[in-house]
Amino acid sequence: MKLAQIAAISMLLASSIVGVTTTIALEVHAAAPQKKPDISEEASAALLRMGQSLRAEQFSFQVRTIRVYADVNNQLLHIFHTMKVVVHRPNRLLVEVSGDDGSNKLVFDGKTADLYSAAQNKYASIPIPEGTIEAMMKEAMGRLGVDFPLADFLTEAPNKAFLTGVTSGRVIDTVTIDGSPYLHLFFSQPSGIELELWLEKNDQSLPRRLIVTYRICRANQTL
Q1: Cα separation of 201 and 30, whole Å?
Q2: Predicted TM-score (pTM) of this structure
Q3: Which numeric CATH code is attached to 36-55+157-218?
Q4: Which of 130, 124, 93, 96 is nearest to 111 (CA)?
């Protein structure tokens, strides 16, 4: 049994948080008892600070992503994108994407989600009855096939969304990025997914880098 890795890398290059941070209560649904995730106190505290910062009324950031995909010959190749994201909670969002495969734009005004694809010369629009960013992202990814790797950070509780499916997490160490200290965190999921997250080492704990690695086993074969 050999092990293959497919990694998606997202780097938050610039983030700005403005407005008042609000506390939002989550609806809890009954579920079967599950083993409590093994998340260290330091990692939980850092994610909580991140979640509080990303619940701000308004913020914007720019992302550069590198993703790995397998072609028809199972060769691992890379594709690059740059995303500009503007968030106005609870129901306004603008995402502009440019990359190797062209440019796209997603606009949400609280009632409808509009997707423009310059590369494919296509336009699509769907109504969003619930009228929230989180509901819109679920509809857009499900019905329009929108691929947005940072959707968890736009939910009403970013720290909890990020931990969905995570069984363990800890702080690895403190590193220096562009002269500033960052916490390097590591999380794992039982489905073979590993996440590395770098957060500012301060009261805001804004994310700077995210690496997602998918470990896929194949008998007598490495993708």
Answers
A1: 35
A2: 0.81
A3: 3.10.450
A4: 130
